[in-house]
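S.,

Sequence below, as promised.
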Amino acid sequence: MAGQQEIPEGSVAAGRRAKLPRGAEQPVRVYVNGVEQTPGADYELRGGELVFSRQIVKEGKLGGIRWLSMFLGVAGSYRKHETVDVEYRVDGRPKLMSDVEMLGD
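The prediction came back faster than expected:
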């Protein structure tokens, strides 16, 4: 990766790795926020894991005041939050994992 990735205020780097389910078969298609990612450039498959070329960014925890203001409709949450979805096959049948949990670096 050339250069440091900027993490917006209020968001956190969730990691670069995600575990595929046991028995997941090719083809594997990976999406970040609904945009298909390119194998080799955006991610690699390594031993049952997806390894991204950059950090996936998730929204940080909300404090009490921020949560209350959202609940009352005074403010919203505008932090960066990336979701990772994965299409794969098990026994030849298509499966989908949505908002995959990141494992860190």
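The chain has a mean pLDDT of 81.

Coffee later?
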